[in-house]
Every structure is written in C-alpha cells, then in structure tokens.
Amino acid sequence: EAGVAQSPRYKIIEKRQSVAFWCNPISGHATLYWYQQILGQGPKLLIQFQNNGVVDDSQLPKDRFSAERLKGVDSTLKIQPAKLEDSAVYLCASSLRIDEKLFFGSGTQLSVL
Amino acid sequence: DQQVKQNSPSLSVQEGRISILNCDYTNSMFDYFLWYKKYPAEGPTFLISISSIKDKNEDGRFTVFLNKSAKHLSLHIVPSQPGDSAVYFCAASEGPGKLIFGQGTTLQVKP
C-alpha cells in the first residue's frame, strides 16, 4: 500500500515570497490533515479536511496560509507571503475516516531566509 | 499554554533494558491518547494507543500506562533495541481526528 506522498521534500525561500506544498493521501482515505512542526516542538494541526470540505481550520493563519483539497483527493497548502517564523516541517496526514489513526507523509522542510 | 507536555527532551538507555517515556496533560476531557514514533527524515508513525477508560494497553514490547488522576501517561519499551532509537511523541485526542502533540522525547538505545 502506497503511503502519503508529499512534495517537495525541501524548500528554501526568502521572506515575503510564496510557496506551495502538495500532498497525495493514501487511496480511499477521506480525511486529510496538514500539520506544522517547528523545530523542538510537536506537530500542530493547521487544517483538517473531510473529503473536499474543511472540518477545522481554526489554527490556520488565514491572512497568509490557504489550503484546498480538490475533488477530495490531493491537497495543496500555500503560504503567501512567507515569514521567518514559518520555517518548519509541514506534514500531511490522512486517515480512512475521521476517527481512525493518522498516517503521515515524510513532510516538506521549509526554510525561510 | 501547552496541554500535552513531554518534559524530558532526551533519554538514553542500554540495549536490553527498559525505556520509560513520560507524558503529562492538563485537559481532563481528553478521551484517547496515542504514541507516535518518528525517525529522521520520515513522518511520525503510529505506535500504540489507549482509551481513557483503560489504565494499560500492551502490544508486544510496548506498553502504555494511563494514570487519569495524575493526568499522566507513560510508554514502556521492554527490552529496548537499537532500532527503537527515534523521537517519540505523545498525543491526546480532543475530538475526532484532532490530536494535540507533546514536544517529543529523543530516545537513544545504545548497543
């Protein structure tokens, strides 16, 4: 069974630039999550999708972050414009249903200079 | 204001001995707890979980203990193996799919 795929693996940008991350969840998984993990901290939920609808985006800084999940499969997370404090690993996860265990991708490591 | 805390950033144990990783939480409404393991350059992988109605759950070498009165859980690994060297995250569920993670503890198992 293929796992959660994420790209790119690494990204280095300057502050105020834009960046986008892509995630392909495990086939058939209805729920998709984006987490932000800052160095030395645990992952923090940014947004949760159920199929292509948003379940929870209360922790998403909506002035600069946006996310979409087209057709209930792939998802993209965008930051525009990036700030220094956005440097982190962005993890995508999926689960079969909303109350099932999460499977994580390897993440995208973002460095904002 | 961290609701889930892992106060030990790192732990080093000898191969074959017991590893005990600790986690404290503040919200008594949490009803489900999980441990995830993370190797470098990989995403976290689910290890073991426990419902708040239980005080112990065992899976092979891994056992999780929950003390609700103390708002404390621990992960025991017996015997520890070098392949167990990783970062371990404790997480609490505050609703379907909504996990709050601790900061992580880096476990090193020495051969």
Structure in a nutshell:
The complex is a heterodimer of chains A (113) and B (111). Chain A is mainly beta and 113 residues long.
Helix-strand category of chain B = mainly beta
Q: What does the main sheet of chain B amount to?
A: 6 strands, mixed
Biggest sheet architecture of chain A: 7 strands, mixed
The CATH superfamily of chain A bears the name: Immunoglobulins
Estimated helix fraction of chain B: under 10%
What is the CATH architecture assignment of chain A? Sandwich
Notable characteristics:
heterodimer; A: Immunoglobulin-like; four-stranded antiparallel sheet; globular; B: 111 residues; mainly beta; Immunoglobulin-like; 11 strands; 55% strand
Write up what this structure looks like.
The complex is a heterodimer of chains A (113) and B (111). Helix content of chain A is 0%, strand content 49%. By secondary structure, chain A is mostly beta strands. Chain A has one domain (5-112): Immunoglobulins (Immunoglobulin-like), CATH 2.60.40.10. In chain A, strand 4 and strand 5 (44-50) form a beta hairpin. The mean pLDDT of chain A is 94. Chain B has 111 residues and is mainly β. Chain B has a single domain, classed as Immunoglobulin-like, CATH 2.60.40.10. In chain B, strands 2, 4, 5, 9, 10 and 11 form a six-stranded mixed sheet that branches. In chain B, strands 1-3-8-7-6 form a five-stranded antiparallel sheet, with no helix packed on it. Chain B starts with a strand and ends with a strand. At the A-B interface, strand 5, strand 9 and strand 10 of A face strand 5 and strand 10 of B.
